[in-house]
UniProtKB/TrEMBL annotation, chain A:
It comes from Streptomyces indiaensis. InterPro entries: GRASP_targ, Rbsml_synth_pep_Strp. NCBIfam families: GRASP_targ (TIGR04186). This is ATP-grasp-modified RiPP. Pfam families: Strep_pep.
UniProtKB/TrEMBL annotation, chain B:
This is ATP-grasp ribosomal peptide maturase. PANTHER family: BETA-CITRYLGLUTAMATE SYNTHASE B-RELATED, RIBOSOMAL PROTEIN S6 MODIFICATION PROTEIN. Signal peptide: none annotated. Pfam families: ATPgraspMvdD. InterPro entries: GRASP_SAV_5884, MvdD-like_ATPgrasp. It comes from Streptomyces indiaensis. Residues 2-113 form the MvdD-like pre-ATP grasp domain.
Amino acid sequence: MQPFALNYARPAVELEAAIPYVYDAGLQLNVLHDGRVAACDFALLREFGTTTSTAGSKTHFDD
Amino acid sequence: MTVLILTCEEDVTADMVVVHLNATGVPVVRVDPADLTGGVALSGEYVHGRFRGHLSAGGRLVSIGGLRSVWVRRPGVPAARAAQPSDWLTEEAAQALYGMLRGSDARWMNHPDAARRARHKPWQLRIAQRCGLPVPATLITTFPRAAREFAERYPELVVKPVSGAHPQDPPRAVPTSRVAPDTDFSAVAFGPTLLQRRITKRADIRLTVVGQRMLAARKATAADADPDDVDVRFATPGSPWLPVDVPSCIAPGVLAYLREAELAYGAFDFVEDSDGTWWFLECNQSGQFGFVEVETGQPIARTIAEWLARPVPVQPPHVNGARLKAR
């Protein structure tokens, strides 16, 4: 009784590494442990994939 | 005047825009509706024919009348983190927050009504057709026989979710996947199924549109790519995303799409075939853009910030709910 499309489903892949930044309500930005703004570190964003088209798919489907 | 951003804390993509707004001195208030009524509070008063409303978050207080724009990015479910969450409280919080915001003169990226409609993929396909964009032959059906007949006409097929949503119990991903011609389609009867002619692609295209500005990126398909790796989101990393011009035969259709959909922002997915034709797959009304900017250096976040920072157009006064013509 499984819908056809689910025959092609695969387990969701969760991020293995802990995200190295935390939200700062004062700045309204996520900051790294050394105080730098995470969004300005493109190498880090690329490494963790938090801006990719599958990020946030758990709660939103506007990939 | 202030830019209101409705999104969750972990949305680092929104941060990319906040950085630009901060640099230009535009006030920003960032709110996650999930934090109603903990870290977020609201109040609105309708008295003597006037409305005065306020939002408070993170120690910031903003007048709803003082909003220049509202960016709906990745908002949480209203009141989801309340002390005693419930479906009823969520509905109450949603009605209060979005109801008040709808009454403001702020510009929306994107308006909730337009956003809700724009999420429907079948509607997207029809709008794209009407706007003259090439759309691969597509079937959405619960009839196994219709699926079989479609597969006979188009032996090269893919299947994808109609909604784009992924099942959460347990968490699974449903990538766009190739369907073998001799597949048993009987399970089509158990859920609406979207089948689409597979375009043999030489590249994926991500076209991010902010207002009237189009920023396109192209990711070439490797010559030795596995033909079963249809979905670029789940394929092994290969060629980088690179900036590309939008073909003159596509650009008017894209802008017409956004006009008809009443969207200020859209992230379009196309595939480019061997003739160079861009085939429309979908338009994500709040699609991710950070990964494109990170790879291509295209100024998408800055363009969004500039759109959000524009002043609110001067509105003529209202009398008894009717808008007077400007003199």
